[in-house]
Design a protein that fits this description.
This protein is mostly helical. The chain contains 7 helices and 8 strands. The strands form 4 sheets. The protein has a two-stranded antiparallel ribbon. A two-stranded antiparallel ribbon has the order 3-4. A two-stranded antiparallel ribbon has the order 5-6. Helix 1 packs antiparallel against helix 6, helix 2 runs antiparallel to helix 3 and helix 2 packs antiparallel against helix 5. It is rod-shaped, with a radius of gyration of 40 Å. The two termini are 21 Å apart. The relative contact order is 0.16.
Length: 313
């Protein structure tokens, strides 16, 4: 091997190795400090993982939406429980008033409480001043719960919740209309006439509307068939609570499914993007040592041309 002064090829080779080791050590340091690989390490993998990250974040937000829906239904059910309690008391008062031993003053006193309960139900459910709300949404006025200026109403449709990261992954929650203006049929009270032999000689079927129960101008403690009509109102509220409960159960199942989906996505994204810290620490130590050795060898290689001085005596 020729002894050259101008071009120290040995030093250059060592320098190339040293530069390569330093570069790899820096990359390893970067991966260790961030915990993830970069786009230079795996371009296609990073692209896949970014889509997964978007799905993960959007799925998490969808789960928050579902939890909000559950909270809304729980709030509605709490109000319905109070309405149920008041209807039960109204039914009790109607039974109490239908007692021939009560004086007119007694019945008047019973009517006073009866009317107050009706007014409280109307206050909770009806008009723009309704107390039954969740985050500004009316819970007992039907539709989508959003108040509109026109005739003090609410928007049509249902309360729509985005429950997934993709378009059209939504469900509609239906809320009950318990306004005093609701004239929907909630049941029928049947009465029968009997002969002395207990044979049915006639029957009457009276349609019951929700508004007729809570409107103080249409229902009083002495109204005909008050006991039967209030019983239908109790059934109506109970049935709607069952509907809300079924919707809540569905949302809770949806939330569990979204949580499992999000967990699986995170595991998949981790396998692509996350750094194996144990393995990377080993790589870092290797290149750190090689860099130190290369640095020492570079110092030795730089001394080789000085041997030419000895030839000059």
């Amino acid at each position: 091997m020729a002894l050259a002064v101008h071009n120290n090829t040995s030093a250059f080779n060592v320098f190339a190795s040293y530069t390569n080791n330093i570069g790899k050590m820096k990359k390893s340091m970067s991966r260790l400090s961030t915990g993830t690989i970069s786009v230079l390490d795996d371009p296609s993998g990073v692209g896949i993982s970014e889509r997964m990250r978007s799905q993960i974040r959007s799925t998490n937000m969808s789960r928050n939406n579902v939890d909000n829906g559950v909270s809304m239904l729980q709030t509605a059910d709490s109000w319905l429980q109070k309405i149920n309690d008041m209807l039960n008391r109204m039914h009790e008062l109607a039974v109490e008033a239908n007692d021939g031993t009560k004086t007119s003053k007694d019945v008047s006193n019973i009517q006073t409480e009866f009317k107050q309960l009706q007014s409280e139900i109307v206050r909770i459910t009806s008009r723009s001043t309704a107390a039954g709300k969740y985050n500004g949404l009316f819970l007992f006025r039907g539709g989508n719960g959003r108040g509109v200026v026109n005739q003090d109403g609410v928007g049509t449709g249902s309360i729509t919740i985005q429950i997934g990261a993709e378009v059209s992954q939504t469900i509609g929650l239906n809320v009950v209309d318990l306004q005093v203006t609701n004239t929907a049929n909630i049941g029928t009270v049947a009465t029968y006439a009997y002969s002395t032999d207990n044979d049915v000689t006639g029957s009457t079927y009276t349609t019951v509307t929700w508004g007729s129960i809570v409107d103080t101008t249409k229902m009083s403690i002495t109204s005909g068939l008050a006991i039967g009509k209030i019983a239908k109102a109790i059934d109506h509220v109970a049935n709607n609570r069952a509907v809300l409960g079924a919707q809540q159960s569905r949302l809770e199942q949806t939330s569990s499914g979204l949580l499992a989906y999000e967990d699986n996505l995170k595991n998949a994204e981790s396998k692509i993007r996350d750094v194996d810290m144990a393995s990377e620490s080993t790589e870092f130590s290797k290149y750190q040592i090689l860099s130190q050795i290369s640095n020492a060898m570079l110092a030795q290689a730089n001394q080789i041309p000085s041997s030419a001085v000895q030839l000059l005596g």
